[in-house]
Amino acid sequence: MEHVDGKNLLPGTLNVKQMYSLGQMTGHMHNVANDGTNKNDRNPKFIPPSVEQRLDYWKSFYKTIDENDMFVELLEIQIKATKHFSLELISSCETGWAHRDLWVDNILFTGDQLSSILDFDRFAFDYPELDIARAIMSGAFNGSTFNSNSAKAFLDGYRTIRKLEKGVFARSLYALWYLESTWWINPNLSLDRYQVVQFQNEMTWLGKNLSELRAMYGSW
């Protein structure tokens, strides 16, 4: 493997300048990936299940957990959010080639500047805005706190390179939640790794705030 300068940062710790730089490079990556060199697939990688299927999935856990289990609270957050979800939010997303794993473990910084994006193993034809949501949640969300200034800096940087309409960020969060929530809200996951805790906290926060995301970030 070729040596690349730079270092990883912890989730939720990226400053405004770092997020701006990450936004610019993400926009550049999307421009290059979608310049016509890569032929578009017929369908995006993420084919979302119906809301009914997703509700059945969540409710199936009630058969395997105790009513006093701490997981019940996380589960009920996801069920409530799913009941109010519309798949039209995903079908309205623009398709294109995307990294699909753009979080802090796969990006390197030298000071305030992004030096490299790593690990394109999951690169596929999907929804590029998933990269936007994944990068922002990874860089700007810490514990239970969302750093709006860092998130806005990413979007500002992205828009210097690639067009991004207002409202897309909010929509990207809905799509990210529907894609990833089943990966990280699971009673069988070990919470010994900080990465798992981070992802689970992100999905819990998104689930709690899902009905308000458009009001909170729709003008961004």
UniProtKB/TrEMBL annotation:
Instruction: Give the matching Pfam families.
Output: APH (PF01636)
Q: Where does the source fall among the domains of life? A: Bacteria
* Aminoglycoside phosphotransferase domain location: 1-162
Task: Name the keywords, alphabetized.
Answer: Kinase, Transferase
- Which GO MF terms are attached to this record? amino acid kinase activity
Recorded family membership: Belongs to the pseudomonas-type ThrB family.
Q: What is this protein called?
A: Homoserine kinase
Native source organism of the sequence = Bacillus yapensis
